[in-house]
Amino acid sequence: MSGSRILAAGLLALLPAGLWAQGAEVGFGSIQADPDAPVEVTADNLNVNQDDGTALFTGGVVVGQGEMRLSAPRVLVVYTENRSGIDRLEARGGVTLVSGEEAAEGENADYDVSEGVIVMTGNVLLTSGGSALTADRMVADLNEGTARMTGRVKTVIQQQQGTDE
């Protein structure tokens, strides 16, 4: 677990139970995704399976589409039935997603490229500025710039510091 993730988890543990929720809608990504933009993948290794139309990238995988970046140790690319484009990406083994000012981490992520929807699962941590949210699952709609956090959502709410003058 990264140092920032440990810190955020520690801060979240201090919150009163009344601030915990079962679901939350939050902004995600200050940019609008373009599902038609090219997807660039870099990795240490590539295994292509012509029979099922997949490509398995392993080792320091970084996927970019426009301003969005996704990194993971393992990413399976599933091509469309006619092999003319990418249908979806399945990232496993600890995933980091960065879009605009926001960043999310989780164990797994599935990206439906044509729909512009990313589903992250497994100890999801979303950070934006000084705010942090954790949940079991996040569904990010890159076209709308929103994310829905579900499954024991926890957050840190920063209070405005006033001056007594």
Structure description:
7% of the residues lie in helices and 59% in strands. The protein is mainly β and 165 residues long. Strand 8 and strand 9 form a beta hairpin. The protein is elongated and about 60 Å long. The termini are far apart.
* Uncertain runs: 1-23
Give the amount of beta strand, in percent.
over 45%
Q: Could you say which structural class the secondary elements and strand pairing correspond to? A: mainly beta
Number of helices: 1
Assembly type of the chains comes to: single chain
Radius of gyration: 17 Å
| Mean of residue pLDDT values | 79
Q: Major sheet, described briefly?
A: 10 strands, antiparallel
Q: What characteristic shape results from the CA principal axes? A: elongated
Number of strands: 10
Output the keywords.
ten-stranded antiparallel β-sheet, single chain, disordered N terminus, 165 residues, mainly beta, 1 helix
